[in-house]
Amino acid sequence: MTAEKIILITGASRGIGAATALMAASRGYHVCVNYVKNEVAANAIVKKIEDIGGKAFAYQADVGDEAQVKEMFRQIDIKLGPITALVNNAGTLELQSRVEGISNERFLRTLKNNIVGTFLCSKEAIIRMSTHNGGKGGSIVNVSSIGAKTGSPGEYVDYAAAKGAIDSFTIGLSKEIGSEGIRVNAVRPGFIYTDIHESGGEPGRVDRIKSSIPLQRGGSPDEVASAILWLLSDEASYTSGTFIDIAGGK
Ligand code: NAP
């Protein structure tokens, strides 16, 4: 009998997280579909997973809130069993602005929703997965952004800085726990058709930019999900501390 694959995907009610949840379920993972606001959308993803014979549950938790994250992992222990994979996908950005227009509150909120959430969820996963703590190992994929490399000038330098922190966290964590059965990697998407661009105040952003992308088009959430699932899988068994850019060659 093969061991059960149990995964938490944060921010899985829509966009890249939802695509990853559906693809993971189709590959035999039992899935915790995390969301923060949109219960209806999260339940719809769970229903789609159940319709293909999979197992999943939706769970509301703000990944930037330590108590809520701890309780989410406790519920995963109870409802699905010991976690074997984590995708730190939840992330937010706010209205496009130069740095002078970004408030301290917004900067801190952006750090909380992106890097703090990644830290808190990774910590709970490591407590359970690390062979050092009696676990059986596992795999973590962080969802960074191509913005970590470009810096997103004039749009959201705060968001790019938070994603840069995710990159450094990925490198350090992969080295720290590599000998404890856990691989840690990241993807850096860019220009993917999801609702996140609406949060930036420009729903049509991908279409505006696409002629400057070498592949001449925006990407789909499934194209990011494929890379995440590969990094999680045994096919990537010797891959840790690395990054896959999924930005059409830009
Ligand atoms: P999206 O469509 O805006 O979806 C964001 C998801 O995150 C939603 O499921 C949302 O839940 C959830 N979420 C937001 N804040 C949360 C919090 N504090 N706690 C728990 N869940 C939270 O975004 P997306 O485009 O799919 O982006 C997914 C990831 O890819 C993000 O990390 C983003 O930075 C990264 N990324 C995206 C692009 C792109 O072009 N789309 C490019 C680079 C990087 P609710 O539905 O409940 O609000």
Note down, in words, how this protein is organized:
It is a single chain. The chain is α/β, with parallel strands linked by helices and about 250 residues long. It has a single domain (about 5-245), classed as 3-Layer(aba) Sandwich (Rossmann fold), CATH 3.40.50.720. The chain contains nine helices and seven strands, in the order E-H-E-H-E-H-E-H-E-H-H-E-H-H-H-E. The protein has helices at about 15-25, 40-50, 65-80, 105-130, 145-150, 155-175, 195-200, 205-210, 220-230; strands at about 5-10, 30-35, 55-60, 85-90, 140-145, 180-190, 245. A seven-stranded parallel beta sheet has the order 3-2-1-4-5-6-7, sandwiched between helices. Helix 1 (about 15-25) links the parallel strand 1 (about 5-10) and strand 2. Helix 1 (about 15-25) runs parallel beside helix 2 (about 40-50), helix 1 packs across helix 9 (about 220-230) and helix 4 (about 105-130) runs parallel beside helix 6 (about 155-175). NADP nicotinamide-adenine-dinucleotide phosphate (NAP) binds next to helix 1, strand 2 and helix 4.
Tag the structure with descriptive keywords.
7 strands; Rossmann fold; 9 helices; 250 residues; binds NADP nicotinamide-adenine-dinucleotide phosphate; 7-stranded parallel β-sheet; alpha/beta
Outline of the structure:
The chain is an alpha/beta fold. The chain is 44% helix and 16% strand. The mean pLDDT is 98.
Mean pLDDT: 98
Number of helices: 9
CA radius of gyration: 17 Å
Label the structural class: alpha/beta
Helix content: 40-55%
CATH topological fold name: Rossmann fold
Q: What are the segments in which pLDDT stays under 50 over at least 5 consecutive residues?
A: none
The strands making up the biggest β-sheet line up spatially as 3-2-1-4-5-6-7
CATH level-two architecture: 3-Layer(aba) Sandwich
For this structure, what is the CATH class? Alpha Beta
* Distance from first to last alpha carbon: 44 Å
Largest sheet at a glance?
7 strands, parallel
Total number of domains: 1
H and E string? EHEHEHEHEHHEHHHE
What is the β-strand count?
7
Ligand names: NADP nicotinamide-adenine-dinucleotide phosphate
Q: CATH homologous superfamily - what is it? A: NAD(P)-binding Rossmann-like Domain
**What does the overall shape look like?**
globular
- The percent range for strand residues is 15-25%
